[in-house]
Amino acid sequence: QSVLTQPPSVSAAPGQKVTISCSGSSSSIGDHYISWYQQLPGTAPKLLIYENHKRPSGIPDRFSGSKSDTSATLDITGLQTGDEANYYCVTWARKVFGGGTKLTVL
Amino acid sequence: EVQLVESGGGLVQPGGSLRLSCAASGFMFGGYWMSWVRQAPGKGPEWVANIRQDGGERDYVDSVKGRFTISRDNAKNSLYLQMNSLRAEDMAMYYCVREDGWSFEHWGQGALVTVSS
Predict the structure, then answer these.
(1) What residue of B is the nearest CA neighbor of A33?
(2) What's phi and psi for A30, nearest 5 deg?
(3) pLDDT < 70 regions, chain A
(4) Taking Cα atoms as reference points, which of A19, A57, A55 lies closest to residue A35?
(5) Which partner for A95 in A68, B46, B47, B87 could form a disulfide, CB atoms 3.0-4.6 Å apart?
């Protein structure tokens, strides 16, 4: 059981917005950076968000991140079928991964 | 272009050893912390170990302490993971990862380690 809790699955229609949550505690999230990763089937994870809300070069602004003391969220707007993937949050406190969320674009 | 290419994966019996290598190119290898991250079949990723730029600091997940050793050769732009006393639960895809901005910034394609008799 990870110290970071994510919903196992979320779904939404193309063009809609989805929010993926990552819940923890003030010790696991509060004073530590959160990053988010997208893993398409059969591929390595890919960095989407770092330092809570920053996007690497090449990541569209449809992806955004935020953080509070005990939780973090990844928002994806303008959903596309190509966004279907597993999404993971990571706290830099011991570099722990959340359990992952499977996004289905209906 | 950043490239990380793992090698050395394969089939090993429980209790056996294996050494993974990662060849880095396209960036100043000696300027970055590097990590190994693994992913068991059907599971989420798990950070395994990391090493500081000069090799002077290393850290491990508790489950591999005393069995795995991470090392690097900056002259050869290479990262290594020596895995001893392998167990069934170590079976996974092992990724070589460049750290930056308190994140796992760049990932290799992975090397598969199978532990089975």
Answers:
(1) B102
(2) -45, -50
(3) 1
(4) A55
(5) B47
